[in-house]
Write a structure and sequence with these properties.
heterodimer, A: alpha+beta, five-stranded antiparallel β-sheet, 19 helices, about 40% helix, about 20% strand, elongated, B: alpha+beta, seven-stranded mixed β-sheet, 9 strands
Chain lengths: ~725, ~210
Amino acid sequence: MRRFFGKRFLRGAVLVLGLFAPGLALAAESAAVSSPRVTATLVSSRDAVAPGERFKVALVQKLAPHWHTYWLNPGDSGEPTQIKWDLPAGAAAGDIQWPAPKAIRVEPLVNFGFEGTILLPLEITVPADARPGENFALKAEATWLVCEKICIPEEGSFTLDLPVAAASAVDEVAEARIDAAIATLPKPAAFRGRLRDDAGKLVLDLPGLPAGAADLRFFPLSDTLIEHAADQPFAAGDNPALTLTRSSAFKLAKPEVSGVLTFTEAGAPRAVTLLADADPALIAAGGAAAPEARPAVVRIPMPSEGADLTLWAALAFAFAGGLILNLMPCVLPVLFIKALGFAQLAHRSRSEVREQGLLFLGGVLVTFMVLAGAVIALGALGSSVGWGFQLQSPPLVIALAVVMVLIGLNLLGAFEIGASVAGLGDGLASRGGRLGAFMTGVLAVVVATPCTAPFMGAAMGYAVTQAPVVALSVFMALALGFALPVVALSFAPGLLRLLPKPGRWMLVLKQTFAFPMFATAIWLIWVASVQSGPQGVLAALVAVLAAGFAVWLVGVTRGSPGRRVFGSALASLVVLGAGWFTVQNAVPGAATEARAGDIEAWSPERVAALQAQGKPVFVNFTAAWCITCIANERVALSRQEVKDAFAKLGVVYLKADWTNRDSRIASALAEQGRAGVPLYLFYPARKEAQAEILPQLLTVDGLIAAAERAAGRNAKTAALP
Amino acid sequence: MQSLTRQTFIAGLTLAGLAFPAAGFAQGAAKVGAPAPAFQAVDVEGKTRNLSEFAGKTVILEWTNHDCPYVRKHYNSATMQNLQKDMAKEGVVWLSVISSPQGEQGHVDAAKAKELTVQRNAAPAGILLDPNSKMARAYGAQTTPHMYIIDPRGTLAYMGAIDDKPTSAASSLEGAKSYVRQAVAELKAGKPVSEASTKAYGCVVKYAPLS
């Protein structure tokens, strides 16, 4: 029946029966199989058949309101109608010609199927040697699942006895019904689609789609291609395309997908059958089993830097890495604060300065232990995290940005903390001073994590594969190396004495230090924007505003006890509200896409496929919050010489972006004996050849040399058959 | 004084910042190879169960609805019960999950769920009641049955159909390949799960509306 003949008209199946069922069952319609949900019959377009002819029959299902049966791909659940034929010798039945399905929502899932009255047409071929006068018996066993919210499997046997005659006798009423149903079947589209991967999403390009097409929906025949319930955003314009979501059970066996595309054109519903050429890379991705559930950490011998470190080497590496970490830009703002504190204390008691240095050390050690503990504990729970993992949490990134802004405001003198401006250093022995020194250490470590120093990668990669005690000692060595310069400074009075006496210069210096703080805040908000998109920026700026307002409020209401209570209460409310807003809005998800141009998103399957094609592959494991990574991209990776060399040698550049959590990337890092980014791998142009690990600080020459090594082996093997 | 109180102030802020990150680690729907979504659900004994309490054990989640024809196919033939008992012998924790909300077909209370277990001679280690569909949403459960296997490290090792015969006909059990048995055997042998993600089949899971 026509698809727009909706449920409204089907107030009762009885009425429908009255419309269609001839008073007496003609030979052209079988006896009905009925349930309270479905009335099914087999209809033939012939009252009598001629030898050798092909004629149309249809299985008719009249469904009660709100009940549905299923299309060939039933969607998230269900089963399509099936017909098994028992035909006279030499006769043949074709396949069901499926009408265009409807998406039937069963929140939050979706089924593909039919409501109302549907005809499932197909063709029967009469054998040429059928003799007129014989009986041509059509016997069919059909099974279908009919669901509203609950599902009932039903089945029915249908028999039609058609006499064989010299000339066939057409049943006009039945033929008209079947032809009307066939007329509404989806026709082959006039164009072919293209299916490609775009940063983990599937994009179906529809070149040749009629302009003005709207309300598109693609129904794939395969039930392991897309998430059926996901929205299918449509990009109109010169390159019309649907964005589809990859099925969790994604499988693609051949480079072609087929399905039905429904849309409206000038308000009229249209449906076409669509064939689309799939990017062969998708087959590699689907052909392999889903990503292996690897253990969180895999120990394999590391081919280069830190090849199977001994414990002592790992400790030495960690200590050196910690030392060098002080030279990285992440920590500088915090070291500014520390230096400022020392400068103010320089001409006072030496023991107090020492105490400050040791408290800073304590803060650094404790924080490293907490971080290491978290990394180890989460690893034991099977969740793979690594160095810098806390920066994968947008709310924490935003909280750090707020801290930076407030420190900056305070250094500029925008607000004062504490009772009033008393003499410098009066509260030196107070608990506040000690806690502050300790906390500076904590803060230094937290902001240091976006940076990775040379030697650190190998040491930490070693640490996370070892027993907890060993891992903790490696982190401890790292912490000692990191805290050493500040502690040494606090124990070197000679150095401090070189500083002039406190005076106006100190105020100017203090204000100068505000700007690195603001710069750090800007960078952190940018990281949040990469992680959570525009909502992340909004949340960050709201958080900064709320924090600024709160400290100002506390400042101005300081006068009397009553006002003070009111001010603190209001400030707490504002801070809590902003915190809630941040957590609500700063959610990871704005997947960072490998930038356009010739950089593709990384996947292990893609690497394998490219290697098999004999291409050298460069993989850049990076994250927006990883300063070292970005520095490498600026000074080496994005340089023209490197791009030219890559192009000349046919290197494919893949990017694995770890800005947000991604367990596949984490386990790939673990396989290379690493616990964090950056990691640079060069895969030679040979199937399954081991990758070369590049140093964590890249140079243009080093990169080009590595590219030549990876491609050079290719030149030798290319001659082989 | 100033610099020190400033440091105290920084201290407070840092602490506040460190208290924030919890929200960032909420995982979306289940993905094979990724940490299995954490859950918290009340079982039929009234106890709150968490995924974390099963750390170090393989866990099987079975979404079920006793009146669904596909579920009945597996229970009426004792296929499901035998699988549950075999898995228990292997030391695997089997949790049946019932996600039908109040007023929907398939919703049962604890007493009824226990009665069904006795009636059918089933042997799950526990039955979780998920009438607000929280757990179903976290895992993206679509059908009954829908099977999930979590390895001892908490990584999702398998999700999908119970076997390779997507029909409610009892005759289909003959010669069906159990994806669950296959995956558990491969996990035990330390091999990667060869078919780790398949298309589940069955009746649709009834979800509670998002409040």
